[in-house]
Design goal:
about 170 residues, mainly alpha, 2 domains
């Protein structure tokens, strides 16, 4: 398997791994320069490390690249990964009341923190997501930035796991 990944051109490699971190192909390009990889765990660890070692400005760019949750006006513009994750959590099936709650929370959160609410929604239900959202909007900026980084890493790990399954 790794022989196959290591043989990908930079363009092919970037296409495969460009959205592990939402719209951040610079991470996959940097990762490409760290070949060869011992195994998928090595690749994953190196990719996560690139993000963790990025400066806060670059981390904030990635936080801001994430879409609002359950924003029915932007569902068509989501990356395929984000679309699938939100749909699997039932966020495309919200009632009008739920869509409005998400809309208000998205606005309040971005206004307060300067970046969208980020939560790894895989395996969660919309009621759990809304509850988490309502609680976190009351937090402070530093805590939410740190939590956003944690959530981005969790999302990246889920996406890496999906890619691993495609390569095995």
């Amino acid at each position: 398997m790794f022989n196959k990944i290591d043989k990908l051109s930079e363009t092919e490699f970037t296409q495969v791994f460009c959205n592990v971190f939402e719209n951040a192909d610079w991470i996959s390009k940097k990762l490409y320069g760290q070949k060869p990889f011992k195994n998928f765990q090595d690749l994953s660890k190196k990719m996560i490390s690139i993000f963790e070692n990025a400066n806060n400005e670059d981390k904030l760019k990635i936080l801001n690249a994430h879409p609002d949750l359950a924003d029915k006006t932007k569902i068509g513009s989501l990356t395929p990964d984000s679309n699938e994750e939100q749909n699997n959590a039932g966020l495309d099936q919200c009632t009008e009341k739920e869509f409005n709650q998400f809309k208000i929370l998205n606005y309040k959160y971005k206004d307060k923190f300067g970046f969208p609410f980020i939560l790894a929604v895989k395996g969660r239900q919309k009621s759990d997501i809304l509850l988490n959202f309502k609680k976190r909007v009351l937090s402070d900026k530093k805590s939410e930035f740190n939590e956003g980084v944690v959530q981005v890493i969790q999302i990246a790990n889920f996406r890496l796991e999906e890619l691993k399954n495609k390569f095995l």
